[in-house]
Amino acid sequence: MKSTVQLYFTVARILSLVVGILFCITVIGAIIGVPLIIASNKFKEASVMTDAELVKNRGSLLGWGIFVAIVFSPTFLGLIVLLLFAILVDNYIKNIELGQTAKNEATFVEVVESGANTAWNEVKNTFSGKKTNIDKQREELEKLDKMREEGLITREEYGAMRKKILDI
């Protein structure tokens, strides 16, 4: 997956730079061209960042990725592909931040298949009337909160049970 992230930064950098320069040919185009050139520079910096620096700059990198995807949105495929990669890179950095680097060892195909399967299962659960894990947790937390308000459990018991429900 690390190679996919490096490829994303390289492709996004080149696309941003080339299109940014082309936009800057006109004064009005410079309104979009200059930020594209800035985005190109951000992607260049990101390609050599350490994991800690990637985590620190995660929000900024996602924002620039979304900006570049929006600029390429007239080509619908460009929008979808660039947004997909921006989100995958954000998840890669998020895994580093959460200490789940083993997830980053998966190949690009495995990540896409896993994401597609998760999305498909969520769609099936939504339309089948089955409750998702989040819905179940929400209901359990509401019951737990009510028990605490009614004095059936102490704050300490509430905290322990809450952690158990949320798998913390």
Brief write-up:
The protein has 168 residues and is mainly alpha-helical. It has eight helices and no strands. The chain is elongated, with a radius of gyration of 22 Å.
Distance between the termini: 27 Å
Largest sheet, strands/sense/barrel: none
Globular, elongated, flat, extended or rod-shaped: what is the shape?
elongated
If you average the pLDDT, what whole number results?
81
Rg over CA atoms, rounded to whole Å, is: 22 Å
The ordered string of helix (H) and strand (E) elements is: HHHHHHHH
Strand content: under 5%
The tally of structural domains comes to: 2
Could you please describe the fold and organization of this structure?
The protein has eight helices and no strands. The chain is mainly α. The protein folds into two domains: about 1-105; about 135-165, no CATH class. The mean pLDDT is about 80.
